[in-house]
Design brief:
The chain is built from 13 helices and 15 strands. It is of the alpha+beta class. It is globular. Helix content is 39%, strand content 20%. The protein has two domains: 178 residues, Chloramphenicol Acetyltransferase; 222 residues, 2-Layer Sandwich (Chloramphenicol Acetyltransferase). The strands form three sheets. A six-stranded mixed sheet has the order 5-6-7-2-13-12, sandwiched between helices.
Length: 487
């Protein structure tokens, strides 16, 4: 039995029927590399063989009565694999649009939190998905955010996939279930934790107060000097009706664009694509503010020593998207300066120490605080977390295989919050950047149009970066062919 940390508990407490706190991913596979025909039963048995490699798969959440303390993970003695792995098919003809409609519907439904909080769907019938082989199939994975973050999600991916079509040697499974703890036992544990809290609180105050004083001074100065984050029609209350879509382009394209602006990173380039896409999209609706929009960018606080441990360890930095700048490279330069400053601030205030302080909140108080957030005034909320969210997860640059079938694409769908705008999930895999967007249909009824705006923003960056790259490569060096966006 293992207790959830503060951030994991926050994702659990903040779930409502409108704001579902799970992450999903959509993968597309080419079965031609598999050693034999693939059946649903074969996939189920494959997942069964990998259960020992990912602890998240057989653990369920047990909440403490009255939320007196954070919940616990318990090994589910009633675990039923067939409940979690399911099979569906697209209707003919099986197009890209149909695939994303189905993925969006699956993402709209809550997980059963009485069981281990995950589901896997095999999606057949991808016969007319442009850019992929006929007969391809999809895999849709849903996992509650309390169980997994972007980095630990990679560990789950590694458990389910192999580096060759031949698979790997079987793993010995020594797992056994746990009996659910009684309410009295959970309350007794909560009492022990609260008794220890005053001493922990004093120790944390000694470490944190100087940092908080410095951080508050920095934030006050930034608030006086920095721009205001304007709310937009994208920053509204969400509904239960999720909508998603995405596209991919060459990672080399992003690397060549970044070379046009000193100090820029691939992540800055992605933010510039999002900024350019938002600018074009809001302009087309006559709703572009004069002030720049900002993005909340989650960053991992997980150290190398914590790799493989359970739980979320993330913080948020807010950076400009340069939507007030028409020039694509000027926008990228503004984003590069903003992300550099944000990283320096996060390092200066020691975000890990501040995150540890929140562990001192009792479960019920944290739950009240989280549930109060949707009632914060929309403009104020937007200033706190940005107009949209953009999260970047590094993926494998070598092929991955499921039951011998080669994975060809890897997209993500994320949770959407009141007033926080669409979430953009970025995954690099096999030399491609996969950029996907999740929102609700009432806020973004024309998702396909927004995706086209993002594509055109990428094209503008490619065109603008070409002469800038030529002017900085006059000294002898190997020349690379210019990469073009792909679908």
């Amino acid at each position: 039995m293992q207790q959830l940390n503060q951030q994991d508990s926050m994702f659990l407490y903040s779930e409502t029927p409108r704001m579902l706190m799970h992450l999903s991913s959509l993968h597309i596979y080419d079965p031609s590399t598999a050693p034999g025909p693939l059946t649903f039963d074969a996939v189920v048995e494959h997942v069964r063989s990998r259960l020992p490699l990912a602890r998240v798969l057989r653990r369920k959440i047990v909440r403490v009565p009255l939320d007196l303390d954070y919940p616990y993970w318990v090994e589910d003695e009633d675990f039923d694999l067939e409940f979690h792995v399911r099979n569906i098919a697209l209707p003919a003809p099986g197009t890209w649009q149909q695939l994303w409609v189905q993925a969006s519907r699956l993402h709209s439904f809550p997980l059963d939190l009485r069981r281990p909080p995950w589901e896997v769907y095999i999606i057949e019938g991808l016969d007319r998905v442009e850019g992929f082989a006929e007969g391809s199939f999809g895999l849709f994975i849903k996992v509650h955010h309390s169980a997994i973050d972007g980095i630990s999600g990679i560990e789950l991916m590694n458990a389910l996939h192999d580096l060759s079509p031949d698979g790997r040697a079987p793993t010995v499974d020594s797992w056994h279930g746990e009996e659910r703890p009684s309410a009295a036992a959970l309350v007794a544990r909560a009492g022990t934790h609260m008794a220890l809290m005053p001493r922990r609180f004093l120790q944390q105050v000694v470490r944190t107060v100087p940092l908080v004083r410095s951080a508050v001074a920095s934030e006050w100065a930034a608030a006086r000097a920095g721009p205001h984050t304007p709310p937009t029609p994208l920053n509204a209350k969400v509904t239960t009706n999720r909508v998603g879509d995405g596209f991919r382009f060459d990672l080399q394209t992003a690397k060549e664009i970044r070379s046009a602006v000193a100090g820029a990173t691939v992540n800055d380039v992605v933010l510039a694509v999002v900024g350019g896409g938002l600018r074009r999209y809001l302009q087309s609706r006559g709703e572009l503010p004069a002030e720049p929009l900002h993005a909340g960018v989650p960053i991992s606080l997980r150290t190398e020593q914590e790799a493989g441990t359970a739980g979320n360890k993330i913080a948020m930095m807010v950076v400009t998207l340069g939507t007030d700048i028409a020039d694509p490279l000027g926008r990228l330069a503004a984003i590069q300066r903003s992300t550099s400053r944000s990283k320096e601030v996060n390092t200066a205030v020691e975000a890990r120490t501040l995150a540890e302080s929140s562990e001192l909140f009792p479960g019920a108080l944290l739950g009240l605080a989280v549930r109060a957030l949707p009632r914060v005034r929309a403009g104020r909320m937007t200033s706190m977390i940005g107009n949209v969210c953009v999260t970047n997860v590094p993926g494998s640059q070598v092929p991955l295989y499921l039951c011998g079938a080669r994975m060809e694409a890897y997209y993500g769908l994320g949770p959407v919050y009141d007033n926080a705008g669409p979430i953009h999930l970025v995954v690099s895999y096999l030399g491609k950047v996969h950029l996907s967007v999740t929102s609700c249909r009432e806020i973004m009824p024309d998702m396909e149009h927004y995706i086209e705006c993002l594509r055109r923003a990428l094209g503008e960056l490619v065109e603008a970066a070409a002469p800038a790259r030529r002017s900085t490569t006059k000294r002898p060096r190997s020349r690379r062919p210019s990469a073009k966006p792909s679908t």
